[in-house]
Design a protein that fits this description.
The structure holds two protein chains of two kinds. Chain A has 23 helices and no strands. By secondary structure, chain A is an all-alpha fold. By secondary structure, chain B is mostly helical. Chain B contains seven helices and no strands. Chain B has helices at about 15-55, 65-75, 80-85, 90-95, 100-135, 145-175, 190-200. In chain B, α1 runs antiparallel to α6, α2 runs parallel beside α6 (about 145-175) and α5 runs antiparallel to α6 (about 145-175). Chain B is elongated, with a radius of gyration of 20 Å. Residues about 1-5 and about 205-215 of chain B have low confidence and may be disordered. The chains are: A mainly alpha, B mainly alpha. The interface between A and B is large, with 84 and 81 residues.
Chain lengths: ~425, ~220
């Protein structure tokens, strides 16, 4: 081979982009490019031999076993009746605010996010539960739809979060610390969304009237239904904080609690099997992506591309914050067209070392990237959460879902600016744990 | 398997290819169900481990080894099942707009790429497992043998390869006669349709059939 390794690396990146754009599955495209690239650099025997061991060796890491547990919790939570219970409680406690039902929706999705790691699933479930109630109370369709679409994005920020586990695996940082780091940014995001709803409803009171008239008795009576969520949060938080269980064990215990409640609510046979099969399906999809992309990453490493990119980035005559903002803009544009997991897997192997060389914190950057991926779920043209809402509610046009989500995107940009200006907001909690 | 068929192969028809599709699908369902029950087992074992360790100070011996060995079940067994349901992540934005021969050609390219990768991975995955078998590789703590775990990888890949072959025949047939009824393949969806399916699945209606069918 007369080509230099770097040239092969760049050709590989281009080849991968072409394959992904023409619709080849991301795990196949990245494994194929990685395989061919490694063979080009190392020869057939060594190249294919290395690739042959990667799927098994990269999949059997104990930390990865947390993924099916988190996914299972999310699938079982709906059957355990947690959605309805959370929305009911939030409505009774927060309905009196301007745009009260939409505020309630935001906090109910935040609560559900604490048992669910998937944004689209959260948006789907609340489209069914919260939108009918809001429309019945005379709320504007775009506010109702936007609140659900935006609220759904909280699932990836508030632990358990599948996206964060994937980030931690790619960049080899601590899963537990990253999950803990998500609590405060998740809460800030939820509060900023609620603030947007309140301001919006004060400016234009027609779109969302306050809901009053609940007694304190009714309010307290609504609380026990949300208890399982509190238990799951307590399990995951305390396990990470006090270290009495690994993330997998905490996830398993959380799943077990929700499982028992779902059984108590009468979940049997077919729905149980369906939930388990859905969990198995999503699990294998994520594992395939992990080993597929790690084959590509191994090839990039041999080609020396991450070092070259890092040298280039560090050599730029710009302050780190300017480079960071450019990276975020690139993610924003990419995210308009790509799925969050795919985007992270394809960009992080090259971008992450450069960001570290600029002196940023790995946990902080993880939260920023996840937040960025979530913003992309509610921006056109490809905003999966908005698609989900529009498909559950065919009476609400997609354009009006996107319009309703718009103000929440503004809130997201303000939140991101806060994270950029005050990184301690993200890093404080995990640092406390480290000190512990 | 009532209900699951609503997103898998048609229950009948399609001639020889249809029958082959359903035959592979039966194996895929069995593999996926095994993976699903292994996830349930992982949950239960972890709970037993926590209770045993914290309450009785008696952890399960070789627990982490056991989990790592068992991970290949849910990391690989359902790979072909997910392929048949079109669940593996890809960018639909371009290919979702293709129609007729252009679409089938793009799919044929994708399947051929996949078949090449999976052939190599099956062969070298098998060698990797056989090496573990002949060397008697085992885990460090509990000294469980590695080879059955490693063997699940080429087995899952071999089934996926068979699935890809069925898809290839299905796509070639449609490339020849674009007006024919699709058999043995997953028909790609627009992003909107994919979102709708995700919504159904999240609400427990996708894999479980319509709610009234679930008992």
């Amino acid at each position: 081979m007369s080509l230099s390794n770097e040239t092969i690396g760049i050709l590989g990146v281009i080849g991968l982009l072409v394959l992904v754009v023409i619709g080849v599955r991301v795990y196949i495209a990245s494994a194929l490019v990685g395989l061919i690239g490694l063979i080009a650099i190392l020869g057939w025997q060594a190249g294919a031999g290395i690739v042959g061991t990667i799927p098994h060796s990269k999949s059997i890491q104990y930390t990865l076993s947390v993924l099916p547990m988190f996914i299972l919790i999310g699938y079982l939570a709906f059957y355990a009746g947690l959605t309805q219970a959370l929305f009911d409680a939030a409505r009774k406690w927060l309905g009196w605010l301007p745009g009260g039902l939409a505020v309630a929706t935001i906090f109910a999705t935040a609560g559900f996010a604490a048992v669910s790691g998937a944004s689209t699933a959260t948006a789907a479930v609340f489209s069914r539960v919260a939108i009918p109630e809001m429309l019945r109370a005379g709320y504007a369709k775009h506010l109702a739809a936007g609140a659900v679409a935006a609220g759904g994005t909280l699932a990836a920020l508030i632990p358990p979060s599948a996206l964060m586990v994937i980030y931690a695996i790619i960049v080899e940082t601590s899963v537990g610390q990253l999950l803990l780091a998500g609590f405060i940014p998740g809460a800030i995001s939820a509060i900023s969304y609620a603030a947007i709803v309140v301001v919006w409803s004060i400016i234009n009171p027609k779109i969302g009237q306050p809901i009053r008239g609940y007694t304190w008795g009714q309010r307290f009576a609504a609380l026990p239904g949300t208890f399982p969520v509190v238990v799951v949060i307590a399990i995951i938080f305390s396990a990470m904080y006090l270290g009495w269980a690994t993330p997998t064990e905490a996830g398993a215990l959380g799943a077990f609690v929700v499982f028992v409640i779902a059984l108590a609510k009468g979940m049997r046979g077919a729905p149980l099997k369906a939930a388990l099969l859905e969990t198995a399906k999503l699990t294998v999809v994520i594992f395939s992506l992990i080993w597929g992309v790690l084959i590509f990453v191994r090839f990039l490493g041999f080609a020396g591309l991450p070092e070259k990119f890092t040298e280039f980035i560090v050599g730029l005559p710009l302050p780190p914050i300017a480079i960071m903002i450019m990276i975020l803009i690139a993610y924003f544009i990419l995210g308009m067209f790509m799925d969050a997991i795919g985007m992270m897997l394809l960009t992080l192997p090259v971008v992450y070392p450069a960001v570290m060389a600029l002196g940023y914190d790995p946990i902080w950057f993880g939260i920023i990237v996840v937040k960025m991926c979530e913003v992309c779920l509610v921006t056109p043209p490809i905003g999966l959460n908005c698609f989900v809402v529009a498909s559950v509610r065919p009476d609400i046009p997609l354009t009006s879902v996107f319009r309703g989500a718009g103000p929440f995107v503004i809130a997201d940009f303000i939140t991101l600016a806060i994270f950029l200006a005050f990184p301690e907001v993200i890093t404080w909690l995990p640092k406390q744990i480290m000190a512990n | 398997m009532a209900g699951v068929a609503s997103t898998g192969p048609a229950p009948e028809g399609g001639g020889a290819l249809g029958s082959l599709d359903r035959l592979v699908w039966r194996v895929e369902q069995a593999f996926a169900l095994t993976a699903a029950y292994c996830i349930l087992a992982l949950m239960l074992i972890a709970v037993v481990q926590i209770v045993g360790r914290t309450l009785f100070n008696r952890p399960i011996f070789g627990y982490i080894d056991m989990v790592e060995i068992a991970m290949t079940t849910f990391a690989f067994l359902a790979i072909s099942y997910a392929e048949r349901l079109g669940s593996h992540i890809r960018m639909e934005i371009v290919v979702g707009r293709f129609k007729g021969r252009a679409l089938w050609l793009a799919e044929i390219v994708g399947v051929l790429a996949a078949m090449f990768v999976i052939s190599v991975l099956t062969y070298y995955g098998w060698e990797h497992a056989m090496r573990a078998y002949t060397n008697g590789d085992s885990t460090i703590d509990a000294e469980y043998s590695w080879w059955p775990s490693k063997m699940l990888v080429p087995i899952s890949f071999a089934l996926l390869w068979l699935r890809l072959l069925v898809s290839l025949i299905g796509y070639l047939r449609l490339f020849k006669t674009p007006t024919a009824e699709p058999v043995g393949i997953f028909v790609p969806e627009s992003p909107e349709a994919a979102a709708e399916r995700e919504a159904r699945e999240a609400l427990g209606e996708g894999a479980g059939g319509r709610p009234e069918e679930r008992r």
